[in-house]
Every structure is written in structure tokens, then in C-alpha cells.
From TrEMBL:
UniProt keyword annotation of NAD present: yes
Domain Mannitol dehydrogenase N-terminal: 40-290
Gene3D superfamilies: N-(1-d-carboxylethyl)-l-norvaline Dehydrogenase, domain 2, NAD(P)-binding Rossmann-like Domain
Protein name (record): Polyol:NADP oxidoreductase
InterPro entries in the cross-refs: 6-PGluconate_DH-like_C_sf (IPR008927), 6PGD_dom2 (IPR013328), Mannitol_DH (IPR000669), Mannitol_DH/Oxidoreductase (IPR050988), Mannitol_DH_C (IPR013118), Mannitol_DH_CS (IPR023027), Mannitol_DH_N (IPR013131), NAD(P)-bd_dom_sf (IPR036291)
Highest taxon listed in the record's lineage: Bacteria
GO BP terms, alphabetized: mannitol metabolic process
Organism annotation: Saccharicrinis fermentans DSM 9555 = JCM 21142
Residue stretches making up the Mannitol dehydrogenase C-terminal domain: 299-487
GO molecular function, one term: oxidoreductase activity, acting on the CH-OH group of donors, NAD or NADP as acceptor
Length: 506
């Protein structure tokens, strides 16, 4: 029981600039003078991942070099970002990154690299102006896989999206990243300014290329005369980004209060592992992130493939199987022997053959370390986070592997089983009868297709915007249908255990 005396004696320190030196000495604080930081990066999408990754690297860099011209201006694009925006404003851009070591030790570090913040819906013009400032050299993005607005069936930009239509009609008050970038780049051009770099930090194959392709599609419609200028003044480097960063829960806030007497309204927790591999293609210079561990390479494709098809796909495997079984976190699913065996075999036999030449990367070591990372019991990465917006993730993480394996007549049974599990997942209830919410822009279509698939198993694959031509691939359809039938008649653990034996034999 909590002692009344303890409650009275505990004084929490609120996180803000003035209090930095009153924090417990176990918490590291920025060693540079934040009042001297100037911004050259505008980041759109200020969620947890940006705060555990790019903002962290940038904080490390400023601490190491004392060069302070690479501060970040964070932009919340959506009304949904208001809560975080208000908290950041209150805390003067400061937040605690709590690195959870593999043995459970917490390493809290206050990050100071974000020194300005905007909530776009409050003042769209201010955001456009900020991006158009001569000092802004990089606009980085974490807008999620779905944020690039691609129709998977056609591979093209989706102009039917209502927000895109709004941005075409009301260029001065955009709602999407495409509208903002177009207006800001137009101002840069009109003012005779230099270009800038648009740097995607999302989990998408060729994320820079995709950012360029989608922005150009929008520009061609909205401001066709701007296209050539962008082509010659703006670069879009591809990058692989990595750090498992779960959703912040009340317990994380409480833990900081209890263990460190720190009141932070929205800390970020993450694993110790971090990686950023970037193509060195920056229009007007960049921070020397290599000084703090980022890798600059000519060709990032092998790194992206490896990460998306092993880590992210691995998450989807554990997420879908785990959700159906009733597990709540990834570590629970990753510690389940049946699921673990299944995952490793999926990685070795289905994903690895599609990865091509990976230079001197030790793939075995990478896969083993992934499984260890997934098993980190302190991270508590919720399966609900992994499964949300699967309609945008599965095509990138899993269907790409299926397509490549089909081309080379490789194995696809485990991937197809996970896709069938995704169909079952959309029933909305786990095997214990507990229901969960399907958080997905396509939730209605997914739920409906899952319902129909009880009578007609192929119904799920007919969602063209997800499966495209795969719904007509005989081999894939057959394997999927067999898997779905199995899933509808047996418990998931039974199916997985059976497949682990059956598939090992051939
Ligand atoms: C996850 C990623 O969203 C997902 O499904 O796989 O967020 C993953 O945790 C990160 O890419 C890790 O770098």
C-alpha cells in the first residue's frame, strides 16, 4: 500500500526549460544552449517515431559537435495532433526519451532538438511560410505508409481522396502534406530561393522515390509549371529507418514520476537499437548525422528490403497470429515457441530468398537479433499498434515478398497463411471471444470482405486496392484459400504447430 507520507513528500519536477537543471541527475539533459539553436529542419508528423529517431540523432549531434543550426521545427498536420502539440508547447519542445535496455534498465534522456512547433490546422499559412524560409534546408516526413496516398491496385496517386480534392480547390489552406509542400515550394521558386530536401522517414520501399512520385503527381495537377523547378531544385533521398517505438502508455508516465520524480506529459519509450541508412542526396547540405551513427550510402535498396521484409514483416507475422490468439504485446507472441519457429522459417525460407545481394551484411545475425528485439519484455509493443492500418502496411511488408517468390517459384505458404490470418483478424474477435477495434482507413471494406469470406474464401483477395493482380494468381489464391479454411476450423496455435512440422518437411 502507498504510504501517506510518501505521497506528501514526493515533489515532481515539471519538464520545461527552466527546470532542466533541477531534474534528477540520472536523467541526462541537453548539453548545448537551446536558446542558440536555429532551425533548418521542418518535420511533418511529430509522433513517437520521429521523437525516438531523427530528433534523437539530431540532439546527439548538437551535443557532440556544438553546431546548433540544425534544430527542428515540428509540425502536427492533423487535428488529432493537438494534444501532443499542446504538451510540446507547455514543455517548450522538451520530452523525455526513455531507452529501455534489454535487462529492463531505464535510461532517460531529455531531448532538446525540437525548438519550434506548429499545429497546421491552426495556421496553415505559418507552416507554408516556415517551409519557404531560406533557412529551411530539409523537410522531413513521418506521415505513415498510408500517408503517401497511393492506390495499390494501380500504383498511382489517388486523386479521389477528399482531402486531396480539397487541397486542389483551396490551395491557400491545405490539409495534406502534398498541398503544404506544393505551396511552400511554389513560394521558394517565386522568391528565387534555393531548393531543399524532402526526406521521407517512413517504412516504404524507396520512400524518397515514392515521396517524389506522389508529390509530382499532385503538383502536375495543382501547379504544373512548378514541376520542372522541383525536379531540378529538390532532392528526395531514400532511407531506411529503424527503432522500435511503442505507443506511450500511462504506465510510462507513472514510471518517470515514481522513479525519477519527473512530470513529463508525453514521454517516448524505445528500444536501445537504432539505425538510419540514408542516400547522400541533399539539395542544400545536411547535418553531419554520420558523426552520431547514421550511415550514408549510395544505394539504400538492400537495407530497405532487408528491414521491411524481415523486421516489419516479422512484426506483421507476430501481430496477426498473436492478435488472433489473444496476445496483447509483441514480446508475448515472440516468446511463443510455435510462433517463433514459424517466424524464423518465414524469414529464412520466404523473405530471405527475395533480398538479393546484401554485401557484407551478416543476415543470420540480423535475423537472430530481430527475434531478440521482438522478445524484449520491457518494450511492451502493443499488437494493436502493429495491426493498425494494415491495409497500407501488408502490401509493403508482405505482398512484395509473395510477388517476388511467385516470380521465382519460391515458397509462399507461410506468408499466405499470415495474409489469411489477417482476413480472420478482421472478424474483430480473438479466440477467447474478446473483441478489438480494427483501426484502418479501409476497416469497413476489410470487415465486409472478411464476413463474405466465410462463404467465399476468395472474397478477401478481391479487395483490388490491396491485392491488385494477386487475386488472380492461381498459386497464391489456392494457398491462401487452404490457409483460411484451416484457420476457420482450428485454433491458430494448432495451425501454426501443424505448419511448422508440415512445411519443414518439404
Ligand atoms: C512496425 C514499425 O508499424 C509497424 O508495423 O513494424 O513501426 C516498426 O516498429 C518500426 O519500423 C521499427 O523501426
Amino acid at each position: 500500500m502507498t504510504n501517506q507520507k510518501d505521497i506528501v513528500m514526493k515533489t515532481l519536477v515539471a519538464l520545461n526549460q527552466a527546470n532542466l537543471h533541477s531534474l534528477s541527475p540520472e536523467i541526462s539533459i541537453p548539453t548545448y544552449d537551446r536558446s542558440k539553436v536555429s532551425t533548418s529542419i521542418v518535420h511533418i508528423g511529430i509522433g513517437n517515431f520521429h521523437r525516438s529517431h531523427e530528433a534523437y540523432y539530431t540532439n546527439e549531434l548538437m551535443e557532440k559537435t556544438g553546431i546548433l543550426n540544425c534544430g527542428i521545427c515540428g509540425v502536427g498536420l492533423l487535428e488529432h495532433d493537438r494534444k501532443l502539440y499542446n504538451i510540446l508547447k507547455n514543455q517548450e519542445g522538451l520530452y523525455t526519451l526513455v531507452i529501455k535496455e534489454l535487462d529492463g534498465t531505464l535510461t532517460p534522456k531529455v531531448i532538446g532538438s525540437m525548438v519550434e512547433y506548429f499545429l497546421a490546422p491552426d495556421d496553415p499559412h505559418a507552416v507554408i511560410e516556415k517551409i519557404a524560409q531560406p533557412e529551411t534546408k530539409i523537410v522531413s516526413l513521418t506521415i505513415t505508409e498510408g500517408g503517401y496516398n497511393i492506390n495499390e491496385a494501380t500504383g498511382n496517386f489517388d486523386f479521389s481522396n477528399k482531402l486531396i480534392q480539397h487541397d486542389l480547390l483551396h490551395p491557400e489552406s491545405p490539409k495534406t502534406v502534398f498541398g503544404y509542400l506544393t505551396q511552400a515550394l511554389k513560394l521558394r521558386k517565386t522568391r528565387g530561393l534555393k531548393g531543399c530536401t524532402i526526406q521521407s522517414c517512413d517504412n516504404i520501399q524507396g520512400n524518397g522515390d515514392v515521396a517524389k512520385k506522389t508529390l509530382m503527381a499532385f503538383v502536375e495537377k495543382a501547379e504544373p509549371e512548378l514541376a520542372d523547378w522541383i525536379d531540378s531544385h529538390v532532392t528526395f533521398p531514400n532511407a531506411m529507418v529503424d527503432r522500435i517505438t511503442p505507443v506511450t502508455v500511462a504506465e510510462d508516465i507513472n514510471q518517470l514520476e515514481e522513479q525519477f520524480d519527473l512530470a513529463d506529459q508525453w514521454p517516448v519509450v524505445c528500444e536501445p537499437f537504432i539505425q538510419w541508412v540514408i542516400e547522400d542526396d541533399f539539395a542544400t547540405g545536411r547535418p553531419a548525422w554520420e558523426q552520431v551513427g547514421a550511415q550514408f550510402v549510395k544505394n539504400v535498396v538492400p537495407f530497405e528490403n532487408m528491414k521491411l521484409r524481415l523486421l516489419n514483416a516479422g512484426h506483421s507475422v507476430l501481430g496477426m497470429l498473436g492478435a488472433i490468439h489473444g496476445y496483447k504485446t509483441i514480446d508475448q507472441a515472440a516468446r511463443d515457441e510455435d510462433f517463433k519457429t514459424f517466424l524464423r522459417a518465414f524469414m529464412d525460407e520466404e523473405a530471405t530468398p527475395t533480398l538479393g545481394h546484401l554485401g557484407d551484411i551478416d543476415l543470420n545475425k540480423y535475423k537472430t537479433s530481430l527475434i531478440e528485439r521482438f522478445q524484449n519484455i520491457y518494450i511492451k509493443d502493443h499488437i494493436s499498434r502493429i495491426c493498425l492500418q494494415s491495409s497500407a502496411k501488408i502490401p509493403i511488408f508482405l505482398l512484395s515478398t509473395v510477388r517476388d517468390q511467385l516470380k521465382q517459384q519460391g515458397k509462399i505458404k507461410r506468408a499466405a497463411f499470415v495474409i489469411a490470418a489477417w482476413c480472420k483478424y478482421n472478424d474483430g474477435t480473438d479466440e477467447n471471444g474478446e473483441s478489438y477495434e480494427i483501426v484502418d482507413v479501409m476497416s469497413q471494406e476489410l470487415t465486409r470482405a472478411a464476413e463474405l469470406s466465410h462463404q467465399d474464401p476468395v472474397a478477401f483477395l478481391r479487395i483490388k486496392t490491396i491485392f491488385g493482380e494477386l487475386s488472380e494468381d492461381k498459386t497464391f489464391v489456392e494457398v491462401f484459400v487452404t490457409a483460411l479454411k484451416m484457420l476457420r476450423t482450428k485454433k491458430i496455435k494448432e495451425c501454426v504447430a501443424e505448419l511448422n512440422i508440415k512445411l519443414r518437411e518439404n
